[in-house]
């Protein structure tokens, strides 16, 4: 007599199908390619609308101030969702949450592709911004499923996609925007999202790691409110006025909410972010350095395009088109791709701390060089390439430093917080450098164009911030007890480490 076995799988426990899948040998190269490709798609969302920003008020029949929310909404969504998704990934499976984020990215792309209204567009961009959380999740998945010999190179590559996708995606977006209807940008992103969903579902294995406890809903809400207040004050301060009650209220309220949130997190048994782990010197110093790296990387995107596209009548601008300007920034992304394996080897041989320090020094030297080299197009290409080289070393090191300092069950949440620190640095860079450029301008043909001194001051500030990151990196301990890297039993690697 045949008997059927009832399904007794409980929530958070691997199903029979998932357990069966783990018995099959995994193609590690396919996993790395999939997660890197997914990261590229997610980071591409950052620069997707950059070429059409000046036309957004006309395209969406709205005011210029309302149109800026198309960019701001993506930033806020990414900053809030990334650590929350990380915690959910630690609890319920990183692959499962990564797929959910990709579905949100796809939904946001479809909504934006069908929209001609600013509110609907903002909704779509919020969902697209949520997709950026897959980069931190991808790095965490690598820790769970790869052989340790492959881990360093793979982490360096996937982490670098945050910069590679933004730099390489910009000229693609500009080319599409100049030759096709702007909605094509979002149809392309929806197609890429579908490809990513299929690849992740097919090729990425289920992680066996699950952390216990319940999800901290109160902590998630408090974190979101506090972070939104601070990021809105920083990103909109120039528009609202830095001394306006709205800006000061947002900033002060955000800080106050996060202070109360911190006390709550220290007292709860299952916090969204374990602040005791985040306060450890290796994690804290890495996160502080991440702010400076995010600042340094975004400075090229904030300053160089204005220098390249400004008219030559001012004696400062280089008079290039948006497409040429974006092509000049593309080498920064390409060099990050090619430097990832080199940075991984350096981290394996001398420790990731050395890679982070080296990256910060290169960023500093790049901006120091920029102060005296800003009169030719190739100067801008050289600066972008140098900064991309430094960011490549730093991005390769930061996730490894984090993962060495936290338990495997906290990987995704810790990497998510580190991603927020990078975003915070980028937001501060946009506000500070935007203020400098706007406050030091000359009028040419009825347009306010930043002066030579404004560009030089921006480069000096970016270099100083990079140097501060180097100082923070020196406070990271040279040797720290490392946690186990893999959750899936592995056999000796038959292939050499990722080149």
Automatic annotation (TrEMBL):
It is found in: Cell membrane. It is a multi-pass membrane protein. GO terms for cellular component: plasma membrane. The chain crosses the membrane at residues 30-54, 66-85, 97-116, 122-142, 154-176, 182-203, 215-234, 246-264, 284-304, 324-344, 356-374, 380-402, 423-442, 454-476. It comes from the Bacteria. GO terms for molecular function: transmembrane transporter activity. Its main location: membrane. Residues 31-481 form the Major facilitator superfamily (MFS) profile domain. SUPFAM superfamilies: MFS general substrate transporter. PROSITE patterns: MFS. Keywords: Membrane, Transmembrane, Transmembrane helix. InterPro entries: MFS (IPR011701), MFS_dom (IPR020846), MFS_trans_sf (IPR036259). PANTHER family: BLL0718 PROTEIN (PTHR42718:SF35), MAJOR FACILITATOR SUPERFAMILY MULTIDRUG TRANSPORTER MFSC (PTHR42718). This is MFS transporter. It comes from Subtercola lobariae.
